[in-house]
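User: Predict the structure for this protein chain, please.
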Amino acid sequence: MAKAHGCDNCNEITGASTIDLLNQDLAKKVRTAYDRLEDRGMSACLFGSGGTCCKICNMGPCQIIDGVDTMLGVCGATADTVAARNFARIIAAGTAAHTDHAREMVRGFIATAKGETPHEIKDVDKLHKMAALFGIETEDRDKNEIALELGEKALAEFGQQDGTLTFLKRAPKKQQQIWKKLGVEPRGVDREVVEMMHRTHMGVDQDYKNIMLQGARCALADGWGSSMLSTELTDIMFGTPVPKRAIVDLGCLREDYVNVTVHGHEPLLAESLCLAAEQEDMLELARKAGAKGINLAGVCCTGNEILMRRGIPVAGSFIQQEMVLATGAVEAMVVDVQCVMQSVAQVVKEMHTDIITTNYRAKMPDSVHIQFEEHDAMNSAKEILKKAIGNYKKRGPHYIPKDKKFDVVVGFSHETINYMLGGRFRGSYRPLNDNIINGRIKGVAAIVGCEHFKYADDVHFKIATELIKNNVLVLATGCAASALGRRGLMRPEAAAEYAGPGLAEVCETVGMPPVLHVGSCVDNSRLLIALTEMVNEGGLGEDISELPACGTAPLYMSEKAVAIGQYFVSSGAHVVFQNLPTSGAKKFNKFLLDGMKELYGACWAVEEDPIKLAHHMIKAIDEKREALGINKAQERILMDMQMRRELEGKALPGVGCGGEGEPHGGLAE
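Assistant: Here is the predicted structure, written as structure tokens:
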């Protein structure tokens, strides 16, 4: 491994347990991404970094310099055209990744409704709400019958050729009007990806603004289409997350247990393994092998999925996947799709550990393939576990860090936030809006996306602590959420340690952390709904672009992160990255960083320094507060019963409105 030995970034990985592992002789023998990055000995290609390397036809590749006539593409393509095509193709690839994931979840949902899986329809209330959106009758019907119709209608939206996606009508009315006027309403999920790839083929669309209209439509098909379908149907099938205490730490591996880590993105596999690991025949097999039981732990976004719903610990995020294996204590790492590095199979070559691939889309040399069959999920899961159990007696030298201090509170779906603020019978975003209006909370920020080997992973921590210090409530997803969990920001106690007085007061009243874990990367659609609920609650504008809210994916690695960023911008939310592959095309870059605001009320921004990035977000939030006229401190009003009755359900600045003469959750007073 690198110089923990050597690589400066490696020493910045958060957590005593990780540093502890890196200093062990066992881990030093393992080569990781940090070593490979250091060994390259070269900087990134400036043409590629700036987005002006074109290789979509065989006349190139062409390296293009903006403003130099002799450095156009062979076909005459300018830097703006090439950068726009490249950026749009990133959006298409990210959307395709979320879409293929979502399609499998919908297929699993249909199989569950038919009784063909070990799973069941758990959240019947949400099932009825989603059915209503799709115009499905629910009265006097069995939940599985409703679910089957819902699943089939959802599946049809992937291949739909005309019309618009159903979930678009969940967006604020003003937002819908903007999309309609611009002609960017997604028709069918797959259609938008295909059209995006076609329009960026050589000799098709050569106007960067026109290319990005389709880029917006493609991204919206992800956020308000496939990702939202995946999240909502997964909640119905496995249960909508509720707050749980859990652990995010390498130390969650257990000495006397069969350790199985689940890595990837599709929760059908992970949930089936969770069920199978509880079966007595599997536990008996583990005991016969000399273990006390089976210990499951998550990695990357699959880890976030089972963390949210089951409280099963996360052993590591994307940048830690090799380190989890470097412990030598893992019997099998079970993987499906996305963000799995090919190097994991090489890390375990001298170990007893198996890398088990489970999806026909994603095989790997030097691994074991056991196809996961959703229609035979339990037997598939048991076959995988049997392979892992068989490795237990082969475990050689290993080291499990003992530090388990990174406890987190997770499970903040938008329904949970609604419930926590207003209560079971009066769930509402009113208290959140009121506390933004009265200034206790300055605004809301999302920190989402990946982690990166080229940067220290304290970037997320620096941004988050700067935001909450300035009374900005933070919502986090994906590996960014894991990174913030490792730093201890997802505990209710963190509010007193890090948050400004206003946010700390609200967090203490509700009993929530100042940084809320909202789910995996596909669950960013939860944030869209949360923002919409804030708009619908009133007092903070008519669409998402007017809200004091901002988002960032500072350490983005995956194409999915760009698709996510674009669907937030296209929905009216300002988004800041540390870098974008567009700097080599002046006009197109300016369009992303400024021109899009005229279309959607929001645009991209770029800032390398994490503290400056946080203050860029705070400034954007302050500007929205000023535009709403709530930038000045509001007088706190202590209300008597007569004043409450006179409210008649209307909210005043600094005043809680619970209806029936009672405030929601006690936050506003």
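The radius of gyration is 25 Å.
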